[in-house]
Amino acid sequence: MSWEGRFTEKMEEHENTKRVMVVDDEAGALTLIRIMLERSGFTVQGARDALGALSLLEASTPDLFVLDVMMPGMDGIELCRRIRARPQTAHTPILILSARGDSESIAAGLAAGANDYLAKPVLHHDLAAKARRLLGL
Q1: What pLDDT, in 10s, does the model give residues 86-104?
Q2: What is the arrangement of strands in the sheet containing 94-98, beginning at the earlier edge strand?
Q3: Tens digits of per-residue pLDDT, 39-88?
Q4: Of 1-5, 20-24, 101-105, where does mean pLDDT reach its minimum?
Q5: Rounded Cα–Cα distance for residues 34 and 28 (Å)
Q6: What distances in angstroms separate CA 115 from CA 16, 44, 59, 67, 69, one per listed residue?
Q7: Does the structure show a pLDDT above 80 at 16?
Q8: Domains of the chain: residue spans and CATH
């Protein structure tokens, strides 16, 4: 294969990369989730709070959201509701990733519109598998 062919192949690969927005107020958790998803081939955009995430949505819409629940100000459940209320993101998959793994918290997340819910700490292969499933990959 020529150099041009390899370059075109890489460009198409990049164009097909799914974009994930991760929202978590803890810098360490945000970095860890970003690394896990990037190693699985996703492009990741991060926000440290719900308002920051909503602001980022003005510029672009991701293919998947990964939301923490416990954040200062607006929590992840309310952010999930707001994402669902927007026509551009009403059908975008949402994965809640939270330290709250009890049945009430899971039910609240799903009732708010999340497609799935994972409890922290999460293993790399579990997060990647859920993301791929939600994206139909």
Answers
A1: 999 999 999 999 998 889 9
A2: 43-47, 19-23, 64-67, 94-98, 116-119
A3: 999 999 999 999 999 999 999 999 999 999 999 999 999 999 999 999 99
A4: 1-5
A5: 10
A6: 22, 19, 24, 11, 14
A7: no
A8: 18-134 (3.40.50.2300)
CA dihedral 103, 104, 109, 115 (to 10 degrees): 30
Position 101, amino acid: G
How many CA atoms lie within 13 Å of 75's alpha carbon, on the beta-carbon side?
Answer: 11
Alpha helices in the chain (DSSP H): 3-15, 27-39, 50-57, 76-85, 103-111, 124-134
Return mean pLDDT, the chain: 89
Whether omega before 93 lies within 30 degrees of 0, making that bond cis, reads: no
- The sign one gets for the Cα dihedral 50, 55, 57, 63 is negative
